Amino acid sequence: MAKRLYEVWKGKNKFIFRGRLIFGPDAKSLIITLLLIIVPVIIFCTNVARNLLGETSGNIAGYAILMVTVVFTIYVLLLLLLTSARDPGIVPRNLHPPTEEMCYDSSASIDVGRQTPTPRLPPTKEVIVNGVPVRVKYCITCQLYRPPRCSHCSVCDNCVERFDHHCPWVGQCIGMRNYRSFFLFISSSTILCIFIFGMSALNIKFLTNDYGTVWKAIKESPLSVVLMVYCFIFLWFVGGLTCFHLYLIGTNQVSVPLNFWEFWCGSITCILFFM
């Protein structure tokens, strides 16, 4: 019986469910990312959101806060899975390498001083794309001339089309097929951080009204302050990354174009981040 492609894969990727999901070699870091998202949300739902339910008794707002947190967290986790478990745009290795050309190699010469032609492939060649000449590079590992905007990832050991970078937090390359989900993941994570920060601050405000001072409110719900500090710190990471990619999109430097809805989703996130 012939082996399936994932069973003879020459890259460093990891496959599960009979090759249906593909991860990078550092997929274990995904566990840390999951914990960084799930643990704070569990603390928020079991402590802060429960306090808000008591403060808004008889009001649907308390239940709405809890439902929004749960639903939006599931949405963020789904985007994380779509980013880390999908093919980022891997260009398969060439099973039939191009024929070597006779080129002059300066390192090989004969006694009379003339260079000896040796068979090798030129490191670059020029191809025509939409009527425009484009110079492409040859990848020795994958044995092919890379398409335009394609790069070889040293971590995964694959050529990835429209390669952006290899993200250790999702354990996967970011390229043509998962850049959109990656952008939505970081922008949605920013919104989630802002939401939890705001609701934790609101809980402190309610407790201050009940106990008279901020210090007593903090002593009553110290986890609210912990969540505020945690979200503030991580906002500089995911929020800054979102703003950076918005800049790349706005200046047309990104390899994968986004549609109108995806762009404005990230733009709203950027506005909320700076408010």
From TrEMBL:
Q: What is its main location?
A: membrane
Point out the signal peptide segment: none
The domain of life for this entry's organism is Eukaryota
User: What are the annotated GO cellular component locations?
Assistant: endoplasmic reticulum; Golgi apparatus
Q: What class of enzyme is it?
A: transferase
Q: Where in the cell is the protein located? A: Endomembrane system
Residue intervals of the Palmitoyltransferase DHHC domain? 137-253
PROSITE patterns from the xrefs? DHHC (PS50216)
Q: What is its EC number?
A: 2.3.1.225
UniProt KW keywords: Acyltransferase, Membrane, Transferase, Transmembrane, Transmembrane helix
Q: Which reaction does it catalyse?
A: L-cysteinyl-[protein] + hexadecanoyl-CoA = S-hexadecanoyl-L-cysteinyl-[protein] + CoA
Annotated Pfam families: DHHC (PF01529)
Q: Does the keyword Translocase apply?
A: no
The GO terms describing molecular function are: protein-cysteine S-palmitoyltransferase activity
User: Matching InterPro entries, A to Z?
Assistant: Palmitoyltrfase_DHHC, PFA4/ZDH16/20/ERF2-like
**Transmembrane region(s):** 30-49, 61-83, 182-204, 224-249
Q: What free text does the record give on domains?
A: The DHHC domain is required for palmitoyltransferase activity.
**Protein name, entry field:** S-acyltransferase
Identify the species of origin. Answer: Gossypium tomentosum (Hawaiian cotton)
